[in-house]
Amino acid sequence: MITTDGQALAPLATALGDDEIHVWRLAYDHHQGRAPLLAMLGVYLGVPAEAVELETLEHGRPALAGARRDTLSFNWSHCQDQALIAVARGVLPGVDLERLRAHPKAVPIARRYFSPDETAALEALSPEQRDRAFLELWTAKEAVLKALGRGLAFGLHRLSIAGPSDLPVLHRLEGHEADQWQLHRLALDEQHVGTLAWQGEPRRIRQWTLAGAV
Name one GO biological process term (predicted). Predict the structure, then answer.
């Protein structure tokens, strides 16, 4: 596997630093299941994909099983024909990907599931701006919940995202210190929105696209 600029995956994986998070963008077909994820983790672990064992934690988050569980943390998200995989050591990353599309019910959904300040911010936008802003909020919330190890059942209204589009900030997370969290908007393309989240100090984000992903 190589990146779109010709770099081999294995040396990049070997160089994963304790102060970094690696994010990979790749082509995806739902018939593949977890195969691309297992292949990626195998490169980072230095083992064949078939040797990578996963388990599902209490709220559905996948994790490495057995003796390798604490050696590497990861998260992934897929949407139609693309996927994102985040890999790190020492923190639990959460990543979410959505394809940009029209959301005529964005405001009613926000009124039901988002915080009042987020809803007000969406209502203040033009319809042309609202679709992307809605998905930016959605992916940020999902990324935080995935990094937290919880799913949507935790409640989207229990956290609030503030700040400009390119620099989102976790303003509130019920039961947790919001200022201990980092959010990073991922640079993808005009058709996709993605957000990375983790609890802890700021880290260097290194992002690549596998050849054939776009």
Answer: lysine biosynthetic process via aminoadipic acid
Q: Residue 109: in which H helix or E strand, if any? A: helix 106-113
* Domain with 170 in it: 9-209
Contact 123, 134 (CB under 8 A): no
In a domain, 1, yes or no: no
Q: Give the closest residue to 184 by CA, choosing from 172, 174, 194.
A: 194
| Domain tally, the chain | 1
Alpha-carbon distance values, 115 to 34, 155, 182 (Å): 34, 10, 19
CB 98 within 8 A of CB 135: yes
- Within-domain flag for 4: no
CATH number (domain holding residue 143) = 3.90.470.20
Its pTM surpasses 0.85: yes
112 falls in which pLDDT band (50, 70, 90)? very high
Within a domain: 205: yes
Between these two residues, 5 and 153, which has the higher pLDDT value? 5
Residue-level pLDDT at 214: 47
Give the number of residues written for the chain.
Answer: 214
Token couple for 147: 């990094």
**Residue 179 located in a structural domain:** yes
Q: Over the chain, what is the mean pLDDT? A: 93
Q: Tokens for 43, please give them.
A: 């490169």
